[in-house]
Write a structure and sequence with these properties.
The complex is a heterodimer of chains A (about 300) and B (about 240). Chain A is α/β, with parallel strands linked by helices and about 300 residues long. Helices cover about 35% and strands about 30% of the residues of chain A. In chain A, the strands form 3 sheets. A 6-stranded mixed beta sheet of chain A has the order 6-7-8-3-9-10, sandwiched between helices. Chain A has a 4-stranded antiparallel beta sheet with strand order 2-1-4-5. A 4-stranded antiparallel beta sheet of chain A has the order 12-13-11-14, with helices on one face. In chain A, a hairpin with a 2-residue loop joins strand 9 (about 200-205) and strand 10. Chain A is elongated, with a radius of gyration of 25 Å. With about 240 residues, chain B is mainly α. Chain B has one domain (about 1-235). Chain B contains 13 helices and no strands. The radius of gyration of chain B is 19 Å and the shape is globular. In chain B, about 40% of the residues are buried. The interface of A and B includes residues 74, 85, 89, 93 and 142 of A.
Chain lengths: ~300, ~240
């Protein structure tokens, strides 16, 4: 659906986007993750044909961003950063204007607008002026603008920036719902957002893609191994002999010892094995008392920090 | 064409969505009316020469005020990013905006028609110069608008757009004036007087609508629209 190769955009000597290549399949929700100024917005502006790249190509739905921008634009819905709107226009007027330019026949416009207003929960504000709207409604109106022509591809630049937690959840739900039928690219510098909505994440830093994969894959990559914390009551020596004998365990260490009875261990696994179950059986077999068993994965945050700051 | 109409409608309505349009029209009419009638009864002549003589200088400040927001506001609000990623060609957007500002100017001028009607009622003026004057006004207004529209695309600050448009228009207006023509070398005189925005206007204002004057104004309009297309493309490179 989207094929980007070696995309570069320079501002003076500074490359905002530096040789980015990636592909996106139909129906994927892909997140661009990166610190501010990493090149996310510039990449999106190139994909929507607002900016032209200095080098490289981007082909979306079979149309090249440089050669056939008009055909490409017909198939894309774009929500720019900060949800810009004509503040002097009425909400209904605005949607009508977009529908007209989007070539929706006059007879169908009313129906389309109604449908999109339902989807984006805009019915309450249809008769208002854009400047009267709260940030949340502005965001939704701008999203409605991007959806009105039923595009195959949606490009959303920081769709939840500046919203309160309730609104963020609403918009996320909306994006997930839309994402069932459409290809969606969204950008964010908020990690939980990307892991909550996206099937795949591209981490961008200083104009380059530094990592890509599902949120889980990326988390696993950060440490390579998962860590399990257990609290056990039992004899220390017996426990440790047993732990040493288990092939699934790479290493372990005591992190707390409480009066000789309660022991806290940090255990690192040997990869993808199901260590939880093995540990459970171990405690049952030996009649040790297990008071806590907790798995900890490296969060996306760790990956992000490692990739964007750690390298410097 | 449909796109030009859609953009035209949005921009034209945009003028009337704000109170600024009404203030603008009122000030324009009061100012021109006052300047006109101040001397009308003293001179006691049924013509509009005084009105048309002062008009270029009023346009100098009024037209940039009409055009200053056209691009600058889009840039400031960020709506340019949505507009230019809609399936529209650059020139469709430019013409839509240009024609909308033209229509707004035309409405304003139309509302000054009570002036000639009063004159017709009070005396028997020569109708040629009045009709010619209005045709010239529309042509000259178009040139001012094209300049203002182009300048608006250079900045996201409306005030800056206004000031630069006034400066450029002033330059083009003044090079055709007598006192400038006296002070430049002789070989430059025909060129300067040809390029002057006001000199063609006063020709038409005599009631002689010459095709050369029409061609002059149309070329000025097209030249600045061409420059505007370049600045819009420049965004992409």
């Amino acid at each position: 659906m989207i094929r980007v190769s070696n995309l570069t955009k320079r501002y003076g000597n500074n490359a905002a986007v530096d040789g980015i290549s990636f592909g996106i399949r139909k129906g994927e929700i892909v997140g661009f993750l990166g610190p501010n100024g990493a090149g996310k917005t510039t990449t999106m502006r190139i994909l929507t044909s607002f900016l032209a790249p200095d080098e490289g190509t981007a082909v979306i739905a079979g149309f090249d961003v440089i050669k056939e921008p008009l055909e490409l634009r017909k198939r894309i819905g774009y929500l720019p950063e900060n949800a810009p709107l004509y503040l002097d226009m009425g909400v209904l007027d605005y949607l009508n204007f977009i529908a007209e330019i989007r070539d929706i026949p006059a007879g169908e416009r009313g129906m389309r607008i109604k449908k999109i207003a339902d989807l984006c929960a805009l019915n309450k504000v249809l008769k208002k002026n854009a400047y009267e709207l709260s940030k949340g409604y502005r965001q939704r109106l701008c999203l409605a603008q991007a959806l009105i022509h039923n595009p195959d591809i949606l490009i959303l630049d920081e769709p939840t920036a500046g919203l309160d937690p309730n609104q963020i959840i609403e918009i996320r739900e909306l994006i997930k719902e839309i994402g069932r039928e459409k290809t969606v690219i969204l950008s964010s510098h908020i990690l939980s957002e990307v892991s909550a909505t996206c099937g795949r994440v591209l981490i961008i830093n200083e104009g380059k893609i530094v990592a890509s994969g599902t949120p889980e894959e990326l988390s696993n990559r950060a440490t390579g191994k998962e860590k399990i914390y257990i609290n056990l009551k039992g004899q220390r020596e017996a426990i440790e002999t047993r732990l040493r004998s288990m092939s699934e365990i790479a290493s372990f260490r005591v992190i707390e010892e409480n009066g000789g009875e309660l022991l806290k261990y940090e255990i690192e696994s040997n990869g993808d094995t199901n260590l939880n179950e093995a540990l459970f059986h171990m405690t049952v077999d030996n009649r040790w008392v297990l008071t806590e068993l907790r798995k900890e994965k490296a969060s996306l945050e760790d990956v992000f920090l490692q990739l964007t700051i750690g390298e410097k | 064409m449909q796109n030009i109409i859609a953009i035209f409608k949005r921009e034209f309505k945009g003028y009337f969505n704000s109170t600024i349009a009404y203030i603008f029209i009122t000030v324009f009419l009061v100012l021109t009316g006052w300047l006109f009638f101040r001397s009308f009864f003293i001179i006691n002549q049924a013509d509009m020469r005084g009105f048309f003589a002062i008009l270029p200088w009023i346009f100098l400040f009024f037209v940039p005020a009409i055009t200053m927001r056209l691009w600058a506001e889009e840039k400031k609000l960020g709506t340019l990013e949505i507009l230019m990623t809609l399936p529209v060609k650059d020139h469709e957007v430019i013409f839509g905006k240009f024609l909308a500002s033209y229509a707004f100017l035309a409405v304003t001028i139309l509302l000054s028609l009570p002036l000639p009607i009063t004159i017709l009622y009070l005396g028997t003026p020569d109708k040629g110069p009045i009709i010619g004057g209005y045709i010239g006004t529309l042509l000259m207004g178009g040139a001012f608008l094209a300049i203002g529209l182009f300048v608006s695309s250079l900045t996201e600050n409306q005030i800056v757009a206004f000031i630069i448009a006034v400066i450029i228009s002033f330059g083009l207006l003044i090079i055709g004036e007598q006192f400038v023509l006296f002070s430049v070398p002789n070989w430059l005189v025909p060129l300067f007087s040809y390029l002057g925005l006001g000199s063609h206007f006063s020709d038409i204002g005599r009631g002689v609508v010459d095709s050369r004057d029409i061609i002059y104004y149309l070329s000025v309009i097209l030249f600045f629209i061409f420059l505007n297309m370049r600045t819009l493309e420049g965004r992409r490179w």
